[in-house]
Predict the structure.
Amino acid sequence: EPEVTQTPSHQVTQMGQEVILRCVPISNHLYFYWYRQILGQKVEFLVSFYNNEISEKSEIFDDQFSVERPDGSNFTLKIRSTKLEDSAMYFCASTLRGDGYTFGSGTRLTVV
Amino acid sequence: AQKVTQAQTEISVVEKEDVTLDCVYETRDTTYYLFWYKQPPSGELVFLIRRNSFDEQNEISGRYSWNFQKSTSSFNFTITASQVVDSAVYFCALSETPGANNLFFGTGTRLTVIP
């Protein structure tokens, strides 16, 4: 069964450093998403991406965040200057047309 | 705006008991999708079911069943004869249509099945 792949599975970074989280969505999917889950809390929407541009973003997705689809397979989330409160599990997801969303296994980001 | 409420924060049951996880949603759209996801201790999100707003038929899949009632805006999930492997956090989620809109998640219910 096709999978969404996320790397790395765990990243530790110092406050103020830039991090890039990587995702390889399912190849024929058209819509891509990043979600965040702070430990013990609910899964929160960050941003959606379609046709090579952001289609929607939440208030969490401020100027510190950016997304890119640099080639035909990768989908990245960049945090420019990490803060302690950015520590969370970050999930990538993709869908063909919105009737089913496949999630990656997540990247646990720890900011120290 | 959409909202998903999972009022049960934590539930504990003894193995082989049945358990129902509640989900109540709010949306202004007439067409939408509802989902349940399981998050085991390992952390990934596992898709369980999708239901569109026009299909109120209840669904059964093995020990899992779902009761969708538009009249009460509820989409409840029942596990029959629970097992220890069912221990996880379960999330209900809503996606408004048309288009592939983002999923809006409830706060989750942590289910612990005691052997």
Remarks:
- The mean pLDDT of chain A is 94.
